[in-house]
């Protein structure tokens, strides 16, 4: 297989020609923080947490590692004071834009947004909290949706579309009026296309999608199930 040689943090590595910067870094055991990225579904660079510095003749520029394909001779920095500040600012904005109260969340201690906040050293937000009024949908038999904890990573949308093939979820609105909707903006429990598989719940990085009956800090999510499904389908280990 053809390979390309690139530098990440001054270390020369070989990577497949079809890899993104994020994939090449992962193969080389180089950590790049992510939030909207999920193994097995297409990347959309929604969160920008995976920004890296790409060295160019005209100066360094920031690019999202998850959707930027490698090119021979690339030189990349994954961590720097500038990148650390950008990542912390992104997390602060996410907390300020929504209603994230960790102490009463079902995934407290098992939340990717919470973990990322710790990683980037965020202990408060410098931005004014918006305190939006958002709905909680408990119409489904098994699951619930708390829009207050949504960070619009669109993992649920992509998983339901690309893995389950049901396309229950979508994004409506723009800017601060955006929301994740089920069906044609119907209550989740009334959407006939929903197969009740729970893949969207497992893929959600926060407590926005959860199992009914889960108490504070009680719910754990296992994304390895999604990775297993993706690998099994790619290898044609079963027919649907």
Describe the protein's architecture and organization.
The structure is a single chain. By secondary structure, the chain is α+β, with helices and mostly antiparallel strands. The chain folds into 2 domains: 3-79, Ubiquitin-like (UB roll) (Roll), CATH 3.10.20.740; 85-234, Alpha-Beta Plaits (2-Layer Sandwich), CATH 3.30.70. Helices cover 25% and strands 17% of the residues. It has helices at 21-27, 81-97, 112-120, 155-164, 199-203, 224-234, and strands at residues 3-8, 11-16, 51-54, 61-64, 75-77, 136-137, 143-146, 169-172, 179-182, 209-211. The strands form 3 sheets. The chain has a 5-stranded mixed β-sheet, sandwiched between helices. Strand 3 and strand 4 form a beta hairpin. The longest helix has 17 residues, at 81-97. It starts with a strand and ends in a 6-residue tail after the last helix. The model has no long low-confidence stretch (mean pLDDT 92).
């Amino acid at each position: 297989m053809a390979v390309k040689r690139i530098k990440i943090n001054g270390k020369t590595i070989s990577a497949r020609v079809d890899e993104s910067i994020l994939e090449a870094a992962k193969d080389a055991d180089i950590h790049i923080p992510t939030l909207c990225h999920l193994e097995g579904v297409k990347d959309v660079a929604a969160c920008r947490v995976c920004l890296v510095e790409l060295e160019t003749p005209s100066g360094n520029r920031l690019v999202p590692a998850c959707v930027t394909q490698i090119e021979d001779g690339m030189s990349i920095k994954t961590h720097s004071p500038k990148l650390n500040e950008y990542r912390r600012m992104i997390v602060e904005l996410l907390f300020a834009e929504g209603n994230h109260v960790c102490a009463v969340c079902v995934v407290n201690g098992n939340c990717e947004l919470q973990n990322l906040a710790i990683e980037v050293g965020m202990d408060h937000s410098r931005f004014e909290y918006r305190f939006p009024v958002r709905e909680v949908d408990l119409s489904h038999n098994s699951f619930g949706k708390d829009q207050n904890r949504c960070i619009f990573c669109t993992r649920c949308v992509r998983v339901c579309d690309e893995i389950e093939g049901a396309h229950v979820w979508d994004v409506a609105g723009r800017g601060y009026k955006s929301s994740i909707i089920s069906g044609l903006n119907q209550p989740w429990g009334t959407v006939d296309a929903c197969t009740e598989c729970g893949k969207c719940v497992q893929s959600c990085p926060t407590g926005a999608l959860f199992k009914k009956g889960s108490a504070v800090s009680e719910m754990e999510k296992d994304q390895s199930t999604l990775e297993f499904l993706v690998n099994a389908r790619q290898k044609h280990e079963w027919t649907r």
